[in-house]
């Protein structure tokens, strides 16, 4: 999981080029590269979101044309807000969403500071771990989720008749579940990609929030995470069955971090397969 000593992330990963971005969209949703590039003309704006604990950096994306679109909140992994997640936000917006990608560590550091840290080194791991601890303490995730969703809903481009999607990577997986628990009436779809700590023995375990939500779920499990804790996926499947929530729980043939371009274990084929599953869920649920 994301707090293991062996971790695939290098927070200095390069941004995806505009050309490869267009090709990636084409692969995911069946468009030609030219069509994908055309749809990739989106508005991107750095914003500040006021929360109960301060002010959070974030990036807002939406299609450049007239209209309104369903919202999506993106929780990054332990590497935080950085170029590759901006590219994900741009790609989602190109598919017809108003997207907010956040700096989850705003209590502790600016995004530029987290990009300078390397989880693979002891000092970087210690600092990022402390940033994460400050994020998840108390009601922090729930308060942040409420603020982020309210910010998305306040945008004139957001179609508030549609419910909002939320997706997270690594530590963002449980944060996505917590977002659905914080604003169950607004969240229509939840996606976790190689998320850690979705099922725990604690009464605050993220999976216990599913019963109060109204969302569809996509849980994409890394094969090495499943090897460490094969019971977790069965707990999730049972939870979704008992709560009658539409859900897909699947082990992908990629190691923890495979969805994030720039990670040492990035697996393009499996990442695109996960993206296609995400796109299909959003199209149906939002």
TrEMBL record:
Keyword Hydrolase: yes
Keyword Hydrolase in annotation: yes
Pfam families: DLH
Domain Dienelactone hydrolase: 57-284
GO MF annotations in UniProt: hydrolase activity
Domain of life of the organism encoding this protein: Bacteria
UniProt entry keywords in alphabetical sequence: Hydrolase
Record-annotated membrane-spanning stretches: none
SUPFAM superfamilies: alpha/beta-Hydrolases
Protein name, entry field: Dienelactone hydrolase family protein
Organism: Phenylobacterium deserti
